[in-house]
Amino acid sequence: MTDTTIFGLYAAAAVGFGLYGLITNPQPLRKIVAFNLMGSGVFLLLGVVGRRGAAAGFGNDPVPQALVITGIVVAFSATALAVALLLRLFQTAGSATLRDDAPASASINQSGD
Amino acid sequence: MSFALDILTIAAVSAGAFFFLAGTVGLLRFPDTLTRLHALTKADNLGLGLVVLGLLPQAGSVRHGLKLVGIWLLVLLAGATVSQLIARAARQGGPAR
Amino acid sequence: MTVATILEMVLGAVVLGLGAWTIAARETFAATVGYVAYGLLVPLIWVRLDAVDVALTEAAIGGGLGGVLLLGAAARLRASEPAAAAETPGKIVRLGAAGASVMVAAALSAAVLLLPDPAPTLAPAAIANASATGLANPVTNVLMAFRAMDTMLEKVVLLLAIVGVWSLASDQAWGGRPGPRHQADPHGVFAFLARLLPPVGIVVGIYMFWTGADHPGGAFQGGSMLAAMWLLVIMAGLTDTPPASGRWLRLVLIAGPGVFLAVGLGGVCFGLAFLAYPPTNAKPLILGIEVAMVLTIAVTLGLLVAGAPERSPQR
After folding, report:
1. Which of B13, B21, B37, B84 should we substitute to test contact with C (largest number of C Cβ atoms within 10 Å)?
2. What averages of pLDDT result for each successive group of 10 residues across chain C (315 residues)?
3. Where are the domains of chain B?
4. How many other CB atoms sit within 10 Å of the CB of residue B88?
5. What CATH number is given for A3-96 in this structure?
6. Chains B and C touch (3+ CB pairs under 8 A)
7. B77, B84, B85 member nearest C196 (Cβ)
8. ipTM, 2 decimals?
9. Within 13 Å and on the Cβ side, how many CA atoms surround A107?
10. Interchain contact C95–B (C-beta under 8 A)
C-alpha cells in the first residue's frame, strides 16, 4: 500500500461522512457543510488519481489538477447560492426548515442546487 | 559550515515544534478564553518564528528567505489582531467559554 | 514504513477527524469553525500529493472565503437552530444513512485499491505541447489553453451564481447593496488591520496571479486573495458594498467571460478553431484573458460572500 493509496482511502471515508451528514442532519446549513465535505473528498480522489499519473517530471497529472481547481470554484459558487437561498428562506418564513408542514406563512420554492 | 547550519535548523525547528505542542496543550486545557489566547500566541509567534528561523539557512536564496520572514510577519500581524478582537468579544460577554 | 508515511497517515487522520467532527458537532457555529480548520488542513494533503496549485486554491477558496461565508450564515441563522434540531430523524433513518454511507465509502475505497496499473496519464501530452503557449506552469496551460472551454464555462457559472444570488433580493432592496452594513470602531484594531493589510495583500494577490504563468499560482488564487482584501475593508466598515445596479460593477462582472468569449470567437474568425490561439501570440492573449479574469473572479467571489442585496441603493 503506497502513501497515495492511504490518502485515497481517507478521501473515500470523507465522502462517506459527508453523505451521512447530508442525510441525517436536519439543519440546511449543516447539510451544506456536509455537502462541501463530500465534495472535498471527491476532489481528493481526483487528486489521488492525478498523483498516480505522475509522469514527465510532474508530481501530479496537470489535467485532473485543473479539473479540481475548476471544481473548487464551482462548488464555492453553488455553496454561496445555497446559503443565499437559505438566508432568504429564513428572512421570509422566519424559520430555516425544509419540512413541508412547517409552521410558516409564506410558501417558498425550496429547490436547492 | 553547512553541518553547523543543519544543526541550527534541527534545533530551531524542534524548539518551534515544542512551542506548537505546548500552545496546543494550553489551548485544550486552559479554563477560559483569555488564558487560551495566551497559549495560542506562544504557538503563533514563538513556534512559527523558530520554525522560520530554522528554515532560513535551508532557503537557498535571499529572496526565498525574505518570503519566509514575510510570512512570519504577516502571521504576527493577523494573530495579534485576531487575538485582540477575540479578547474584546470575550470581555463584552460574547459567547463565553 | 518511513517517517513520511507515518506523517501522511497522521495528517490524514487529523483531517478526517475534523471532517467527522463537522458532521457530529452539536452547534452549527462550532461545526462551521471545524469546517474552516478542515479547509485549512486539506491543502497540506494537496501539497503531499504534489498539487501545489490545488492546495493554494483550496486554502484560499475552500478554507478562507467558504469559511467566511459559512460562519456568517451560521451567525445569522443561530435563532433558527433549536427548532431545526428537534427534527433530527429517527434511529432507523440514521442507521439506514450510516449503512448507505459505509457502502459508498467502501465502494470508493475498492475503486481506489483497484485503480489500473500503470496509471493512465496526460502529463507527457501536456509537457509535449507546453511550447505552444510559452507558459511553464502545466496547470495554467491546461486551464487556459488545452481545456480552455471548461474554464470559460466556469466563468459563466460564476456569473450565473451571482445573478442567482442577486435575484433573491426583496422588492425594496432590488438592485441595492448586498449584505448588512458593517460597523467597526474606526480607531480600533480591526480598522487598523483593514488599513495596513490590503496594500500587502493586493501585492501578494497580483504576485500569485503573475507567477502563475510559470510557477504554482494563477488567476483563481490571486483573485480570491484580492477578494479577501476587499471583504476585509468592507467588514471593517471602511467602505460599503457597491449597489448591484451599478453599471461599472456589471461591466467588471462580465469582463472575464466576455474577453474569453471574444478571444475564442477571434480564433474562429482567423481560420483556426473556437478558442484556438495563434501560436505566435498565445502568451499575450492568455495573459490578457487572465487579467480580465482575475478582476472578474475577485469581484464575483467577494460579492458571492456578501450575499443578496438587502438595502436600497440610495442609503
Report:
1. B84
2. 81 90 87 91 90 90 89 86 74 88 91 81 75 76 81 90 90 82 80 89 90 82 92 87 86 89 83 76 82 91 88 69
3. 2-92
4. 14
5. 1.10.287.3510
6. yes
7. B77
8. 0.89
9. 2
10. no
